[in-house]
Every structure is written in structure tokens, then in C-alpha cells.
Amino acid sequence: MDPKQIRVRFAPSPTGPLHIGGVRTALYNYLFARKHGGKFILRIEDTDRARFVPEAEKYIMESLEWAGISFDEGIREGGAFGPYRQSERKGIYRQYAEKLVEPGHAYYAFDTPGELEKMRKKLEEQKAANSSYGIAVRMSMTNSLTLPPEDVAQRISAGNPYVIRFKMPNNQDIKIFDEIRNWVIVNTSTLDDKVLFKSDGMPTYHLANIVDDHLMEITHVIRGEEWLPSLPLHALLYRSFGWDEPQFAHLPLLLKPDGKGKLSKRDGDRLGFPVFPIEWKDPKSGEVSPGYRESDFFPGAFVNMLAFLGWNPGTEQELFSMEELISAFSINRVGKSGSRFDFEKAKWYNHQYLQLQPIEDLVAQYKPVLKEKNIEATDDYISKVCTLIKERTNFVNEFWGQSYFFFEAPKEYDQKVVKKRWKENTPGIMTGLTEVLRAIDNFTSENTEKAVKAWIEEKEAGMGAVMNAFRLCVVGAMKGPHMFDIIALIGKEETLLRIEAGIRRMSNR
Ligand code: GLU
Predict the structure, then answer these.
(1) pTM flag (> 0.85)
(2) Does ligand 1 come within 6 angstroms of the Cβ of 111?
(3) In the chain, what are the domains?
């Protein structure tokens, strides 16, 4: 028989924007599915209506699409296991919760909010280790374990509000295998009787998640470490239903750059980097949070960076295309301990990707910026500029600051440098330089460099004195690529004009 087809899912709750940790979870699932020729499913877990944010679903899909993470089944793709939005599966869950009541794995509870509050207060006063609804209190509450069966039936048929709770077994060691953590063993005495089905007719996360994973034939549950505390309950649910458990893998947390705690939106705000894949505008407050897409990251660089937050290939190679990630990925190489987020490394990845882009692509991305500034230049010229400056940039949005002088003469000169470098004898030296340059017919970088250097030596003018003033005239600041490459590109006439303007403007301060 064929081995069972691998089916994994990403199951976000649409309660707000997707954190980059969520994108990493989706990515690992995607890589795992693709690597094993399996199926990848997007399921929207929207049973918590109080926290539901309508804009979030579209945001999640747009983010993943931008990152190049695609699904085989889902709310957009459809599929044989749909619907893929839990709110549309509402009718499915009650029967499963009820199925657990009969053999005694779950029970109806009718406690009012007031009664629950009283219970919590009492447990707090007693300083009980476990202050929630569970073994210690369940027999003193209003539920189908304490009420006569006729009373229960009467309350239900009268439409009294109720929930269905899981009856946590007493003092049992639950042993579950996690692909990343090995055996996880939890004693049930630390766990409470979680609600599975709510009085609003909706399942809770726990029930819906397990029922859907089962019905959708999910073989591997790969999700964030924050769900590890739910694992014993989930395993018990599978066992109570008599269903096969999927294999579990709980991914390590993404940590703050200093390693102290989980990476949050506040860290991003405080330290100045995005924690969301694409820009998010909060529909209520109108607050805009930055995204990697809008910060000019290449999706490939973003994904490559994320892949390495928790996984490594076991080799020195750091740059991976999506295809390479798919073939190199394995759950066995995902670590247990949290990964510190490092924005410098994210920029490094983008820098590397930028160097690898075909030059036509960089030209295409730079052109709109130039157009906005009403600058006309041929593709060939822009392409030469991009080639010269790309090494000095991490992002296409840094191109203009590193290359404006290829398109226009400096509007101003960096005054700090002028003060330091523009001496009384500089105009004379610069005039001498114009004469040397004017005499060169074939104005290539090599020719001008050779001639100017020979002249500096002959005149003993000093390399620094000449080159700094030269750069000031042509660029307006101490930046940019090799001087002789710059002037070869802007041409002899423009170079001479700039030196002359520099002499005029910087001498008459
Ligand atoms: N809806 C849960 C979430 O928001 C799914 C967790 C899981 O993958 O089981 O992450």
C-alpha cells in the first residue's frame, strides 16, 4: 500500500494581522508539504466571534501570496474537504461534542456567570493550585455530573444555556510524541475541564481544531510552541474519539533581539523594524504598522531569513531559493530553543538578494522612482548606474540616495566637508584638474584615472586634497562609487561643468 498522503494545514485565527512568526509556521508547513509531495491546506479558524476582525482574512492571504506560499486547498482554492472556514462548518461540531458526553468523556454544564465567579473566588481564597473548573470543583457545580438526568434533559429542551466541558481524567500521565521535542509527558492533575462547545452554539478552538484536523485527514500538525500547553487536551480528545492522532511538531518561539521573551509588535515599534509581512492598517484605531513588503524587502529574502529562524540546513549555505528550501527542509533540523530575531540579518539577506537580481529587474524597479522625479534616462544608462551602486545598498529604496548624482548635478555641497576639505589653494588645483580632464579624448574610467593620478604625482598635489575636492564638486558629498567610474558615466562635458560650478560656488561662500 502507498504510504499515507501527507496533509498539513495552516490554521490562523483571523483576529488581526499575521505576525512574522505565523508566516514562519505557514512556511514550514508549506516546505514540508512540498518536500513530501503532500497537500497544504489553509483553514480559517474563526469560531471566536468576539475577537473576529473581518479584514484579517484577506490580509493573511495577501501576506502569504506575497511570500510565495501557496495552498492546495482552502477558502480560495476549494477542495474535497471543505468548507475551509470554521464558521461555515458550524453545524458539524455539536454532534462531536455530544458524542463525547455519552461515554463520559464530557458533560453538560449549566453554571451561570455568577456561579462561575463565585467558584473562582472560593478557589482563590483557598489558595488552590488550580483555580479553574476541574476535578476539584466539578462535583459541586451545576452540570450533568451532579444533576439527575431528567433535570439535564429538561434544561436542554427548555433552551437553558449550557456549555459542554471535557472531563479531564484524574492523575494520569499523558505521553505524546513531538517531532521536535520528543516525548512530552504531562500529568492531568495540572489541567482543567476545558469548554469544548460554547453556549453560543460555536465550538471552542480545541474542539473545532481536532474535529477538523481529523475530518480533513491532517497527518502532521506543525504549529507554534504557544500551542504546546493545549497538546495534552488535544491528544486526549483524539483518544476519546478513538481517532488516530496526527504527528505533532511544535516550533520554537521567535524571540526578541535580546533573547528575553517572545517577539512582539511593541519590540518592532521600539527598535524600528516590521513584525508584520505586509503593512497593516488597524481598522479601529487607523494605526498603520509597517510591513516587510512596503519596506522594500524581496519576498525571497524575507522567506530565506524566516526559514533560518528555527531551522538550519546543517551546512554553511545561507542563501536558499524556495526550491532549494523545499529540498533541504526537514523537521529534524528544527531546533527546540527559541530563535532570536535579528533585523540586521534580515537586511543582510536582502542585500544578498539584491546583488543576485538580474540587472533588468533592478532597472525596472528603479524606473518608477526616477519617473516620479521627472528624470529621463535610457535603460542602458540606468542599468550602468545600478551595476555601480548596488553593492552599496540593501534596498532599492536606497538607490536614489546613492545615485542622484548620476542624474543631476549636486544642488548643494555638504558644508561640513567643504569647511574641512575646501582650502584656499583648492580652486587652483581644481582648475588644473579640469585641464587634465579636458585633454582626454577617450573618457573611460581607466584613462581618466591614469591621467589624473600621473598629474597628481607630477604636481605633488596630494591624492586626498585632489580627490576629496573632486568628489565634492561632482557628488556634493563624500559618497558614491569610484570617482573615475562616476565621471566615465556622466561624461566629460558634465564633469567639467560640475567642477567649474564647484569652484564658483564653494569659493564664494
Ligand atoms: N487557530 C490557531 C492559531 O491561531 C491554530 C493553532 C493550530 O495550528 O492548531 O494559531
Answers:
(1) yes
(2) no
(3) 7-75+206-253 (3.40.50.620), 91-197 (3.90.800.10), 265-353 (1.10.1160.10), 357-406 (1.10.8), 415-507 (1.10.10.350)
